Amino acid sequence: MPAPPPPKPSPRRHHHHHRATPNPTRHHLHVARCFPDQLPKPPSPNPLLSLLTAVPDWADAVSERRIREERPLYTHDQWREHRSSLRHLRHLLSSLSSRVILSLVPPVSAFTAFAAAVATYNTLVPDYALTASSLPYQLTAPALALLLVFRTEASYARFDEGRKAWMRVLAGAAELAGMVMHRGGDERGDEETGRGALLNYILAFPVALKCHITSNSDIRKDLQGLLSEDDLNVVLSSKHRPRCIIEFISQSLQMLDFEEHRRSVMESKLSYFLEGICVCEQIIGIPVPLSYTRLTSRFLVLWHLTLPIILWTECKWIVVPATFVSAASLFCIEEVGVLIEEPFPMLALDAQCKQLHDSMHDMMSVQDSVRKRLVAKTKARRRTRLPQNGWLSSKAEEVKVD
């Protein structure tokens, strides 16, 4: 009897097993995408790089802190001190606190150290000393001088343009506020309140523009005494706060009871505000062409990197102080150009806004005093035929006297 055939082995369902087992790679990517905190951490900063940037970071921090300081308006005493014959000694003694000089510590120190390294190498290995002819320096020195002069002049032109734009804004605000304060006769209480609110809007515009074009300004603190809490919240919620205040001024002019011609003249004064916004935003947003700034920086760096090699044959170890003096002088000129390229931190904007505010309030008190005196004189002239000051009460009396 033949043996039964062996049972057939059951087929292995590899595809089913493969489908049931999750893909570890795909699962890992899914987790990494949903939980960003499980991503690999960035490498820690290089200690050597942090050490090399410690001095530049310190110098930049000191310079930025000094730039944020408020600039005062000069008084007669300060002008007398400014032109004093002792100013040179005073400026020399305050060199270590100058933000321009502090910002030059990293580049000047680096180039002086490089000059000392070149001098040391040339002294230890005189047969392979690093030397070169000074003829290229003699040919390129005028080009470097012209480059620095043009850079500084371009920066000062921006500074002067920003100063003039800001002065036009202040002049427009003073003129518009004067027109609002001028009253033709007795006014109702609500009309007087509306004029007071409009005057505060006008005085608030330079403050809002100042906060708009300078960094680290607390606009809520600056406008706290000028605007009501509701108006201040509307201004703070706006993306462009100076234009929001212009809208407050424009709407107030429409609501108040002004003559049509006078209202048109006052609305035309808002062009000073709009022009000031455009000019200031362009100065802040568009610097001196970057290629010009980069060219000046690269020229100065290459100049001082090769200066010890050029001067070694004639000066030997004097190349170290010579490089220090040259770097401190030329980089100082370039640094002044960079600082005044952004004019508004250099101007006394806070002091000028306060001066405008104080002058308008003083003008209001003077206006009330003068108005009361003139009203009293008018009443006295009506009571008497010929007042003490010699004014005639009518044209008929004037003809009679003649």
TrEMBL record:
Q: Where in the cell is it found?
A: Membrane
Which Pfam families does UniProt cross-reference here? Bestrophin_2
Its chief place of residence is: membrane
Biased composition of type Basic residues is found at 10-27
Q: What GO cellular component is one of the record's annotations?
A: membrane
GO molecular function terms attached to this record = voltage-gated chloride channel activity
Q: How does it sit in the membrane?
A: Multi-pass membrane protein
Swiss-Prot/TrEMBL keywords: Ion transport, Membrane, Transmembrane, Transmembrane helix, Transport
> What residues form the membrane-spanning segments?
none
GO process terms (BP): regulation of photosynthesis, light reaction
Q: Where is this region: Disordered?
A: 1-27
In Swiss-Prot or TrEMBL terms, this protein is called Uncharacterized protein
